[in-house]
User: Fold these one by one.
Assistant:
Number 1:
Amino acid sequence: MYIDLLILIQIEKSPKHGYEIKKEIQKDLGYLMDVNHNLLYPALRRFTSEGAIIRKRNEQEGRPSQYVYEITDAGRAKIAELINAFTEKDAKHEIEFMIRVSLFDRISRENRLRILDMRKKDLESLLAGIQQRQEGSVAHDMFLNEVLQQTISRVVGEIRWIDELIRKTISGE
């Protein structure tokens, strides 16, 4: 899940407490998502128990103590594992895909191409379904047709972008 990846990457950048992790993720992706405590703190506990991060108590005068999280070597390995663990189910979710693309510099060329190919195949299937729906829609249903046309345009645009990423990945640009 991409939230696990985002949490670990924030901690990898520098040790942070929970609120800082949340704010940094929202600063980077605020328009895409909101990180709530029900996602963040269970993940931090899980990563601590797995040894991916360590938790250090930070005493503060006149305020409650904070816990600061630091990445471990196991956590760095977990980041690579999570980036590469891209499934057909993940290919259906734009944010899962976009997060992986933003981290392509961390993975092999073969895995980049695998991820791009999976997303492209999913989009091609989606496009065929939308076009079939558009062919069967009633001509007087103007707004439905507008939505379908806009969706087709977005999907076709993303397929073109993926084709360009594939070309750049193969050529080594």
Number 2:
Amino acid sequence: MNLTCPHRRLLRRAAVLTATAAVVLAGCGSVDGLGAGEPAPSVSVQPRPEPLWPAWSSTSSKAPGADAATHQPPPEPLEGLPKLGKGGLGKEDFRDVLRADPRMKPLADRGEIDRPGRAGLRPPLLADLTGDGRPELLVAADTESGRSVLTVYKEHDGRVFPVLFTSGKRMSIERLGPDLLVRSPCADGGDQAVRFHWDGVRMSTVSDIKNYKKTPGADGSPSPQSTTEPSGGTDGQR
């Protein structure tokens, strides 16, 4: 009996099946993958928080999601300021702006500070938060009680409008793309992150998220409880 012929036939069948499988796999790859000469799709880079006053900022880089903001009457221009020239807020003495704002006037003549732990005014900053090519004025102050205050002013047609006023305990402020991210610690050991976005009228709240720190369990291991609790939005005038 010749045993070699069936063996050769099996080998030929295996070779045919292998070739067929290779063709099928090649066909699947051409459907879902990139063909020859096709460019790879571009990758969208998401903005990351950029600290505006780094000395006051934590190392966290979480970005909260978005919640609906409430609507309030539009801000009124500050009275007592002369009409701004072509230089806009960049040429204006920031202390004059603070003196014209009733909420910031008591802090207008305080000295400047360059690190946390002192009472005074942080160095003023200019940043385009509205996308119109003209920078807004950002002023933050720290008080003896440990609370911080942040104000943002926008120039329109030579007039100055307060478009954000918010306060909190030992605030750190970051820029997240065109938005502001304000963080502050909570009494229960967690921290709160509030995100503000220009809505065409003011810097309004798009998210307000509270993060709870994990507490150790009975055996010393971290507790598995949830650490994030989103809350409702505000108008940014806290």
Number 3:
Amino acid sequence: MTVPDLELVRRWRPPGALDVAVVLGVHQRGAHDPAYRRAPDGSVWRASHTPDGPGTVAVTADAGEVVGRAWGAGAAWLLDRLPAMLGADDDPASLPLDSPAVARLAARAGGLRIGRTDRVWEALVPAVMEQKVVSAEAYRGWRHLLRRYGEPAPGPCDLRVPPPRARWREITEADWHRSGLEPVRMRIIRNAAAVDVETKAGVLTALRGIGPWTAAHARSRALGDADAVPYGDYHVPSIVGQTLIGEPVDDAGMAELLAPYAGHRYRVIRMCELYGVRPPRRGPRRPVRDYREF
């Protein structure tokens, strides 16, 4: 048995309630994400390319204790950061509960934490893919490129490790086209791949094609930023408005509603998404485009 095949184990007891599936669910890119899986036993599996190399981690909650199992060159790195990934550094107790609506959300969100992966690039790439498109379109491209360019994940699973940053610059234009993603996404990701974003997470919007929406999605996942607001989202303002005041709002209205929760604005958004009220649909769904036909 080679070292990458060895299974490492870490047990950790969180300081309070923790819903592993909810906390880690933000990293899933569609039902068939090659880098993420929720197993029938409730465990959550993620593949990642760590600074030490490829790794796979499986996380299970058992009687108030979290058990992490990991494989590959990145196994120790992943287990060392297991508590942070599950929100050990988060502080949900400091959320103001002056609003009855937010208090009701918080009562339902006892197991929610904003965790951090410390892998900015792996959060940034799918966020770029999801810019201004329906999710199914972005998820299709993510699946194609990981299956084509991601290596098999270590351990007893059938996952793919997202390619490291340098590898994304090697993806051919033909494969970008086969993924179904429009060319502008290819150019944004290629340009960003020339920068060490792990050390520049605070200035992502300085990169061409990276706006507040994309930066917020990357920061909330990679850095555990509980205050990252994805302005420009197609659905979020309506969900926040409908949940907090009973009617949809735009970005400006959402900013006003979230202002009292500075430091926790992403947390409130996440609670609205998970436990809030979605406005009724009043029109046809946005079509899933396919640039492979162009």
